[in-house]
Amino acid sequence: MENIYVTATERSPELLFDFKTNTFQIRGESYPEDVNEFYGSSLEILEEFLKAQDNSDISFIFELIYFNSSTAKVLMTLFELLDEVAEIGNKVVVEWHYDEEDDNMCELGEELGEDLETAEFVLKSTSD
């Protein structure tokens, strides 16, 4: 499967989905005009790939500076998917990176991480 790389813009984050190493990253700001258009096909491919994994190590790294409510819904769905993938026997580690001075992004990461039941959640400030 070919890796997915989407360059960040002023309103959308960088996506780097490396299917060979099972390392997936979303970095930057996320408030695209049409969240479904931006994330849709990439997340469909990701979901299909992840659900086919068996006993794999999977790493998902979030390094978001800002996101809007539409992106928050996408993130919640993505966290649910990652937890489902962990429940079927994969080792899933979700890393939430935030600027040490940004309490809001820290709290948002904590809230999303609290919903994970099986996947491992790691909260990292940029000073770590």
What descriptors fit this protein?
single chain, alpha/beta, six-stranded mixed beta sheet, 3 helices, globular, SiaC, SiaC family regulatory phosphoprotein domain-containing protein
Can you put this structure into words, describing what you see?
It is a single chain. The chain contains three helices and six strands, in the order βββαβαβαβ. The chain is of the alpha/beta class and 128 residues long. It has a six-stranded mixed sheet, with helices on one face. The longest helix is centred in the middle third of the chain and has 19 residues, at 69-87. It is globular and about 35 Å long. The termini are far apart. The model has no long low-confidence stretch (mean pLDDT 97).
Basic shape: globular
Largest β-sheet summary = 6 strands, mixed
Tell me the distance between the termini.
33 Å
Percentage beta strand: 25-35%
The count of DSSP E runs of length 2 or more, i.e. the number of strands, is: 6
> What percent of residues adopt helix (DSSP H or I)?
25-40%
Topology pattern, helix = H, strand = E = EEEHEHEHE
Mean pLDDT: 97
Task: Specify the number of helices.
Answer: 3
> Could you name the ranges where pLDDT drops below 50 across 5 or more consecutive residues?
none
Number of domains as seen in the coordinates: 1
**Largest beta sheet: strand ordering:** 1-2-3-4-5-6
Rg, Å, rounded: 14 Å
Structural class: alpha/beta
